[in-house]
Structures are given as structure tokens and as C-alpha cells.
């Protein structure tokens, strides 16, 4: 598969008054054309910061310290700032968690979508624009699209508003869509529908999708490949099948084991001990070492690198390579 | 949300960077310390009058005597003559030097009601009369009276604000916590007080109380009146905060733990408004100082012979006096400095602690 | 087994639109005729989507909100009829854990202050030492060392805070615990810890739980009974396994189908 985006050794730090929060520490991955990459991790693991770093949407006190984001042969982190707005929204678009917060309350839905299109296609006529907006709203399967064009975001339900956000993000035929927890604010039944919509759109539009979520099961509905993040690093990256059936990293394994299972009701869940390390108090060696039940002494001192253990299956662990499969 | 401690330290650090606020803080500290030690700092008692020195201009402090020699600071004794309009013209009698003595003895006074003493920071020997700011119509030293007056003018702000905050946060807390009819009733009442122009309200409230009160009674009447005018503003803002705080789950949790309503307001609502209250106090103290001045200026507040900045200024009501004896405006300068210092300090506090940011974050 | 709680035809309406004379013209039926019962030592799951009225129901049961009609029979006594003064003494026996541990602990109190608050309300005669012992015991029951008593909530992670709020409820030795989405704001790797703690405590202290959640996997794991709520009404209820295996109501089916599951 052809790669559309290559991320190499990305570091994003936040410089606070008396500490440096290393939100992202050496994230590398490839995104294939038309591929859905699930970025899974707990809150504060750096998954959103990673996504925003890709298009340099990091505000002070945050700073992208080093790394490369190669898109169409160019490093997005090095190109002139003034070209970035042309890439954001056109080539790479983003869908946020809270649709009501991301849409402006004072403009109609139609106007906001038009605005995005106009920003990137200056010579499109008014009538053409209207048709395009309608087409987009039909595409995201919103009910009664004629009426919805003229309505304001507060008149929409959460699910509808998220559909509008999706329509807006697709308005310029992006090559990459970044969806940051797009269904977390929605109810399960609505969530299922939005996931269905993503599946359909992926087939029709052929964009690549980076799907950020904390919910492994949800990610499994959609993703081709899954990258599991922990404390600012990718700890394991592999195809969906591999991650679910043969996870290698102790963290990924433990996550699966901690979920409630059918037929084992009222039994003790296999919880992961301890707490997620605070972003400015990470352990010296492997970040997962204090909570790991496979950890060896060497893990305490040495930080593991992301290694390709079998083709397409990368793991950041000193132990599981030796120990092999479970 | 930050902890109370963590954000307090952070705020303090921010405040230190606010230069004007730090400067204002030191100005206020000097003013309040001098109010506390007024009897020591002022060379004379506020009641000491020397009729022979009516409207004497500020004394000239010299360090070079008539022979051209450098000497320690001294003043000359002054005598007056009448001019053709029967006005006093003061002239220095250069025959004898009266050096300014430090840590000297003078009028007797009770210090903070603890002990009696006649110790003064500085003074001159009789019959010379040291008047840094000149004298008033009855020949009383204006500097001493300004310093004594600061005791009343500066403390009325603090006491008044304190009482207004007690009432305001209590009423606001109840209003916001209970909502509904209680809220409408209390807030309409507060608004009624707020819509009456404050000077009229001040005067009409003053008229409720008898005219001839002792100075202590007068002091409390003024404080009560001022806080009565001041609480509604505080109550309205505390109410707004209480409405938002009342929806926090820890308030519900407290109820399920068997806390009574008043207990919740006292322990879980009002403490969260403290940072706002402190900022707002420092910004509203000038209003109290000005209010006291206004009452005393109109002769309805602190009465002669007691001094407050307001009643000292009442001497300056006639233009003719100001033209002839401009130094009687000096108490006004003190009011100006204090009001400015409080405002600037309050601005700094607000920027540093920004109590609203706590609400934006949530 | 003894019925610890029985709710009959409970209703709570909120007025939304005001008519000309300030009279309510329309209502949101947050809780609209709900009935169920809970046996001692068991867990009842309340499942539904946001806005279905499950949190309002929980707060009404505890009488943190007054109901409009219906009965709440707790340990054989209808508590809807109790005056505000009388309700205070039953509060001790029923406690609530909230969803967001960042919002449910007063940031100005130390852990000791937070956990001991209820104790001080209910037993004024207890000595300081006794209160301290009880608080420390409650903290240890939820797996936190007593050294943390003088810390402030912001020094703790989400999971630890949730443990503190559990300790705050446990210190009063309640019989019924209402858990309002107790793990949904916690990290995935922490959820299992808290669920295990809750299950342990239930066994140890014979607690009865009302467990509100939208995560069906967890509900299935810990609940004996489950009620599915929609628009203020219970549309289906029964033994957990029965409901999950063969859902009767179409809404229950939609809910079960929508929940993402791992293709294991």
C-alpha cells in the first residue's frame, strides 16, 4: 500500500511555568492511502496532541520539539507557516469531539460549510456552492437536508451536529481526515449510526482516516490498523486482526484482559495495577514498567524502542520479544 | 481545577510582577502603619490649638542658617501682622533657631488605650510651632490632624467593607443556593437599594439617626450606613457564583451526607467566593472612604474636634479659603492617593487571582 | 430475601414553558411512573441513554430531589412522606457516588475533611479519635493508605478520587449505595480496579447497589437485575442474563446492537 503520510519521531512538549510536560515522545507511524488507522489510548496519553501536531495546531505553551510529518514529499513541520491554512481543511481536515463547541452558534449550518468550501475554492459561484452543500448534507445522511441548511447549530441534536461536522470536513475532498473522539459525546445508538456513516463514506470518498478514541471495541469496528498509545508513545502498532487476536505488548494484553467477559459475571476483573503516570513524572525506564506484570529488572533502567517483531507488527517492549506469544 | 493553595502561590507570583500593584501595596502599608501609630508620628495632639497661629502656612524647614552655615534641620518661630484687609501675614523671627528634635516629648496621649505616654517621633521646642502642612482656622496643626484623621478614614473602609461582605455573601449565598421565590425576593430588595442614587440614600439614611451623637456612635452609624449601601452589589455577584457552585456535585454529595442547607452555604459555597470577595473588597474600599468624606464634608459625619479626611476638607468648601490657604486641600491629596492605591492594588489582585477564570475552566 | 427498596409509580416532571401567568404549560417528564424493587445485597442496573431520566431517578430516590408523586419504600417505610427533618436520619443508610470525581469532591477540603463530613453530621457525640479511626478505616477499605488523609483532592488521579468518594459514602455504613455512572469518566485501565472494589465491598458489607451506566458490558458483569429506561419510563426489566440473552423490547435490542463489541 502506498503511504500518504509518514510521521517520524514526533516530539511535542508543553512548557509550563515550572515543569515540562512531554505529551508526545517519539511517535512514528505511516498512514496508507485509504487506510483507517485507529489511535487508541487513555486520556492524557497524547493521542490528540499527536493528531494536532500533524497539522501544527499546537498553541503555546506547547511546542513541537522535533520530528517529521511527511505529506506528499514535504515535511509539514518545516514548510512556511502561510501554506499551512491551505493544507488544513483542504488536504487534511479534522473532526472534533464536541460538535456543538466546534460549530459557531451565530451562523447557519449551510453558511459554515459554504465558508470552508469558499476558503479553498475562490471561484465557485453562489448557486454551485448551495448545490455542493446540499450534496454534502445528503452524503452524511442528515434527515431533511433542505431544512437543515438554514438551521443553526443549537437546533441540531448531537448526532446531527456531528454529521454537519463530518460534511464540513469532507467539503474539499480531503486526503486525510483526523477524527478526534468523534462519537464520545454521543449516545451509543447514535454512535453506532455515526460509525456506520464513517464506514460508508470511507468506501465512497477514499480518504485516509486517523480515528482517535479511548474505546478499543469501538476502534475495532472501523480501523484497518491500530496504534496503541501509552504515556506519549506508541507501544504497539499492528493490523486490527493481530492486535485483537495476538496482542504482544503487556499493556495491550492487560487492557483486553481487564474488560468484562460474557459468562464470567460477578467474578473479579483482571485489573491493571497502579495509575497512569503523570505526564511530568514518567518513570526512568519503560513507561509501563511500574504497572507491568512481565517487567524484568532491565525494564526499570532502559527505555525500549519500537521494534518490528514480525512484518507490520511493531512493539515497544524489552520483554515480549524474548517471551514470545502468550 | 487548581487547588486553593497551588493557585494562591501562583497568584502571588503573578501579583509580584505587577509593579504598580506592588508599589500601591507599599503605599497602603505606609498609610495604615502611620494611622496605627498616629499619636507617635504626629507632633501634636489633634485637639491642640494655638489661636495665634490661625491659618499659618506650612513651616519652612531649613538646613542653612542666616549666617550661611550648614546645620541640622531647624525652623524659625513665626509672628504675624495684619495687612490692610485684616488678614494675617506670617513672618519668621530669625533671631533664634529651633532645631527639629527626634524622639522627643510633647502632648500626652493614650497609645492604643494601652498606656499613657508623651513620646513623639519628632517635634520642636516651644514657643516655635512645627506645621508640616500648615494650620487650620483655629491654629491646629494640619499634619497631625491628617495623620489622626487617617485612623478614621482608613479604618472605616476596612470595617465597612467587612460588614458589607458578611451581609452580601450571606444574602447572596442564600439567594443563589435556594433560588426560586427566596431568590427573587432578596434580589428585588437588593436592586431597590442599588437603584437609589447613593448620595441621596446616604443622606436619607443619615437622617434616621440623631444629629448629636458621640464620635464613637457616629463612627458606627457611618459604618452601618455605608455597608447598607454596599452589600447589594456583593450579594448579586455572590448569588451568581452560588448558582453555579450549587450545581456542583459536591454540594449534592454534602446534602446526601446530611448537611443542612445553611451548613452547605457556609462550608461549600461561600468559601469558594473568597478570592472574588478579596479582590472586590480592595476595589470597593475607596467607595467607603469617599462616602465617609462626603458625609463629613457635609458636616453629617465625624464632627470637630475629631478629625477625618472628610471633615478636614470641609474647611476647603469656600473658594476664598482655598485661594488664600491652599494647604487646606492636603487632606484631599491623601484621599486621592489612597483611592488610587486601592484601585491599582485591586486591579493587580484581580489580574493575579482572576477568580472568574475558575469559572471559565469548569 | 428482604426487599430493601421498593419504588412505586414514581414521577418527577419539570416545567419547561411558562404560560402567560407564570404557570407551567409544558413538562419534561424526567421520571414518568417508574416502579421496581431491589433485594438486599443485590445490584440493580439502570441502563439508558443521556436524558432518559436515570440520574434524576437516582436523585429522587435519595430525595435529593423531591418527587411529584409515587412511593419510595426504603426498609419498609415510605420516605416520600417524611419531612425534611426526618429524611436526614435515613440519609445515613443510603448514599450516592457520582460520575465525575473531579466535580464531586470539594477542592478546599482535605481528604479527612471530605470523608469525615458525614460522620460529624450524624454522630456529634463521637470523640475526635473515634472519628479519625473510622475515617482511616474507610480509607483503607477502599485501598488508600491513611497517610493520604491530609492531602487535597487535586493531588489524586481520577481513580483515587473515585475511591475517596466511595470512602466518603462508606464511612456512614450505608445499606444502599446509588452508583451514578461511577466508572464512565475513568480511564479504561482504571475502570476494572474500581469495579473490583465495588464488587468486593458489596460482598464484604452486604451492600445493595443501584448501578447506573451506559456501558452494557459492565452492567452485564455486575448486575443481578437490570432496568432499561427510555424517556422517563422503564421499558424493560428483569434478570440481567434474561434481558441480555433475549431482549423483549425493541429499544433494548437497538441498545444491545449498538454497543460496540470486540470481534473476538
Mind explaining what this structure looks like?
The complex is a heterotrimer of chains A (326), B (362) and C (264). Chain A is an alpha/beta fold and 326 residues long. Chain A has a single domain, classed as Rossmann fold. Chain A has 13 helices and 12 strands. Chain A has an 8-stranded mixed beta sheet with strand order 6-7-8-3-9-10-12-11, with helices on both faces. In chain A, α4 packs parallel to α7 and α5 crosses α7. Chain A is globular and about 70 Å long. Chain B contains 14 helices and 5 strands. Chain B is of the alpha+beta class. Chain B has 2 domains: 246 residues, MetI-like (MetI-like fold), CATH 1.10.3720.10; 97 residues, no CATH class. Chain B has a 3-stranded antiparallel beta sheet with strand order 1-2-3, with no helix packed on it. A two-stranded antiparallel sheet of chain B has the order 4-5. The longest helix of chain B has 37 residues. In chain B, 59% of the residues lie in helices and 13% in strands. Chain C has 264 residues and is α/β, with parallel strands linked by helices. Chain C has a domain of 183 residues: P-loop containing nucleotide triphosphate hydrolases (Rossmann fold). Chain C is built from 9 helices and 10 strands. In chain C, α6 links the parallel β7 and β8. The longest helix of chain C has 18 residues. Chain C is globular, with a radius of gyration of 19 Å. The two termini of chain C are 38 Å apart. The chains are: A alpha/beta (326), B alpha+beta (362), C alpha/beta (264).
Amino acid at each position: 500500500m502506498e503511504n500518504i503520510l509518514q510521521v517520524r519521531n514526533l516530539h511535542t512538549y508543553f512548557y509550563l511555568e515550572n515543569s515540562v510536560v512531554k505529551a508526545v515522545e517519539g511517535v512514528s507511524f505511516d498512514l496508507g492511502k485509504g487506510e483507517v488507522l485507529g489511535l487508541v489510548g487513555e486520556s492524557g496519553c497524547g493521542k490528540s496532541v499527536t493528531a494536532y501536531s500533524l497539522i501544527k495546531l499546537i498553541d503555546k505553551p506547547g511546542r513541537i520539539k522535533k520530528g517529521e510529518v511527511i505529506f506528499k514529499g514535504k515535511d509539514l513541520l518545516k514548510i512556511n507557516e502561510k501554506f499551512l491554512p491551505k493544507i488544513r481543511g483542504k488536504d487534511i481536515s479534522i473532526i472534533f469531539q464536541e460538535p456543538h463547541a466546534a460549530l459557531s452558534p451565530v451562523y447557519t449550518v449551510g453558511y459554515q460549510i459554504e465558508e470552508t468550501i469558499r476558503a479553498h475554492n475562490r471561484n465557485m459561484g453562489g448557486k454551485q456552492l448551495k448545490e455542493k452543500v446540499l450534496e454534502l448534507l445528503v452524503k452524511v445522511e442528515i434527515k431533511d437536508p433542505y431544512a437543515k441548511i438554514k438551521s443553526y447549530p443549537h437546533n441540531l441534536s448531537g448526532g446531527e451536529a456531528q454529521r454537519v461536522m463530518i460534511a464540513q470536513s469532507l467539503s474539499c475532498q480531503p486526503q486525510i481526515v483526523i477524527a478526534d473522539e468523534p462519537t464520545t459525546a454521543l449516545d451509543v445508538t447514535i454512535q453506532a449510526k455515526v460509525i456506520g456513516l464513517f464506514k460508508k463514506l470511507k468506501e465512497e470518498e477514499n480518504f485516509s482516516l486517523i480515528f482517535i478514541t479511548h474505546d478499543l471495541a469501538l476502534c475495532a469496528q472501523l480501523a484497518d490498523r491500530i496504534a496503541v498509545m501509552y504515556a506519549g508513545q506508541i507501544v504497539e502498532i499492528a493490523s486490527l486482526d493481530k492486535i485483537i487476536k495476538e496482542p504482544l505488548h503487556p499493556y495491550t494484553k492487560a487492557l483486553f484482559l481487564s474488560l468484562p467477559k460474557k459468562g464470567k459475571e460477578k467474578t473479579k476483573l483482571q485489573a491493571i495495577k497502579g495509575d497512569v503516570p503523570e505526564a511530568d513524572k514518567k518513570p526512568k525506564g519503560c513507561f509501563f514498567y511500574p504497572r507491568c506484570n512481565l517487567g524484568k529488572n532491565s525494564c526499570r533502567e532502559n527505555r525500549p524502542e519500537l521494534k518490528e517483531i514480525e512484518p507490520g507488527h511493531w512493539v515497544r517492549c524489552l520483554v515480549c520479544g524474548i517471551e514470545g506469544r502468550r | 481545577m487548581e487547588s486553593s493553595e497551588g493557585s494562591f502561590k501562583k497568584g502571588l507570583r503573578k501579583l509580584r510582577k505587577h509593579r504598580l500593584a506592588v508599589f500601591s501595596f507599599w503605599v497602603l502599608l505606609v498609610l495604615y502603619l502611620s494611622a496605627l501609630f498616629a499619636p507617635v508620628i504626629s507632633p501634636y495632639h489633634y485637639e491642640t490649638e494655638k489661636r495665634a497661629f490661625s491659618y499659618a502656612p506650612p513651616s519652612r524647614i531649613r538646613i542653612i542658617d542666616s549666617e550661611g552655615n550648614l546645620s541640622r534641620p531647624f525652623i524659625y518661630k513665626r509672628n504675624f501682622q495684619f495687612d490692610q484687609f485684616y488678614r494675617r501675614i506670617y513672618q519668621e523671627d530669625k533671631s533664634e533657631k529651633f532645631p527639629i528634635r527626634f524622639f522627643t516629648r510633647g502632648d500626652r496621649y493614650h497609645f492604643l488605650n494601652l498606656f499613657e505616654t508623651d513620646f513623639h517621633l519628632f517635634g520642636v521646642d516651644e514657643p516655635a510651632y512645627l506645621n508640616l502642612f500648615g494650620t487650620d482656622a483655629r491654629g491646629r496643626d494640619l499634619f497631625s490632624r491628617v495623620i489622626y484623621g487617617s485612623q478614621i478614614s482608613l479604618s472605616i473602609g476596612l470595617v465597612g467593607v467587612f460588614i458589607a461582605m458578611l451581609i452580601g455573601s450571606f444574602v447572596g449565598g442564600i439567594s443563589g443556593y435556594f433560588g426560586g421565590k427566596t431568590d427573587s425576593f432578596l434580589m428585588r430588595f437588593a436592586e431597590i437599594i442599588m437603584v437609589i442614587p447613593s448620595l441621596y440614600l446616604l443622606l436619607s439614611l443619615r437622617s434616621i439617626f440623631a444629629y448629636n451623637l458621640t464620635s464613637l456612635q457616629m463612627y458606627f452609624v457611618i459604618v452601618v450606613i455605608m455597608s447598607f449601601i454596599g452589600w447589594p452589589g456583593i450579594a448579586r455577584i455572590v448569588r451568581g457564583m452560588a448558582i453555579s457552585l450549587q450545581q456542583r456535585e459536591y454540594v449534592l454529595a454534602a446534602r446526601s451526607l446530611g448537611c443542612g442547607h445553611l451548613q452547605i452555604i457556609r462550608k461549600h459555597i461561600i468559601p469558594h467566593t473568597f478570592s472574588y470577595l478579596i479582590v472586590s473588597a480592595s476595589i470597593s474600599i475607596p467607595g467607603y472612604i469617599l462616602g465617609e468624606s462626603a458625609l463629613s464634608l457635609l458636616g453629617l459625619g465625624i464632627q470637630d474636634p475629631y478629625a477625618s479626611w472628610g471633615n478636614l476638607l470641609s474647611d476647603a468648601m469656600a473658594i476664598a479659603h482655598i485661594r488664600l490657604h491652599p494647604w487646606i486641600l492636603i487632606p484631599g491629596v491623601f484621599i486621592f492617593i489612597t483611592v488610587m492605591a486601592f484601585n491599582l492594588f485591586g486591579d493587580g489582585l484581580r489580574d493575579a487571582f482572576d477568580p472568574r477564570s475558575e469559572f471559565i475552566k469548569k | 430475601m428482604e426487599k430493601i427498596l421498593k419504588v412505586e409509580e414514581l414521577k418527577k416532571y419539570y416545567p419547561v414553558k411558562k404560560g402567560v401567568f407564570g404557570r407551567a404549560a409544558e413538562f419534561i417528564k424526567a421520571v414518568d411512573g417508574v416502579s421496581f424493587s431491589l433485594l438486599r445485597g443485590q445490584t440493580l442496573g439502570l441502563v439508558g441513554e443521556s436524558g432518559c431520566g436515570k440520574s434524576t431517578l437516582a436523585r429522587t430516590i435519595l430525595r435529593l430531589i423531591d418527587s411529584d408523586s409515587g412511593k419510595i419504600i426504603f426498609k419498609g417505610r415510605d420516605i416520600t412522606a417524611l419531612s425534611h427533618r426526618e429524611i436526614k436520619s435515613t440519609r445515613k443508610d443510603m448514599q450516592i457516588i457520582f460520575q465525575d470525581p473531579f466535580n464531586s469532591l470539594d477542592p478546599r477540603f482535605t481528604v479527612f475533611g471530605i470523608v469525615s463530613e458525614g460522620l460529624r453530621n450524624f454522630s456529634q457525640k463521637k470523640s475526635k479519635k473515634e472519628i479519625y479511626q473510622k475515617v482511616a478505616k474507610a480509607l483503607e477499605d477502599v485501598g488508600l493508605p491513611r497517610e493520604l488523609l491530609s492531602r487535597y483532592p487535586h493531588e489524586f488521579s481520577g481513580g483515587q478520587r473515585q475511591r475517596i468518594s466511595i470512602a466518603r459514602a462508606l464511612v456512614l455504613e450505608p445499606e444502599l449505595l446509588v452508583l451514578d455512572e461511577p466508572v464512565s469518566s475513568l480511564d479504561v485501565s482504571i475502570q476494572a480496579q474500581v469495579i473490583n472494589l465495588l464488587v468486593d465491598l458489596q460482598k464484604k458489607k452486604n451492600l445493595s447497589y443501584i448501578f447506573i451506566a451506559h456501558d452494557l458490558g459492565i452492567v452485564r458483569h455486575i448486575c443481578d437485575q437490570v432496568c432499561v429506561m427510555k424517556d422517563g419510563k422503564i421499558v424493560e426489566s428483569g434478570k440481567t442474563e434474561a434481558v441480555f440473552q433475549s431482549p423483549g423490547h425493541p429499544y433494548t435490542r437497538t441498545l444491545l446492537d449498538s454497543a460496540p463489541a470486540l470481534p473476538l
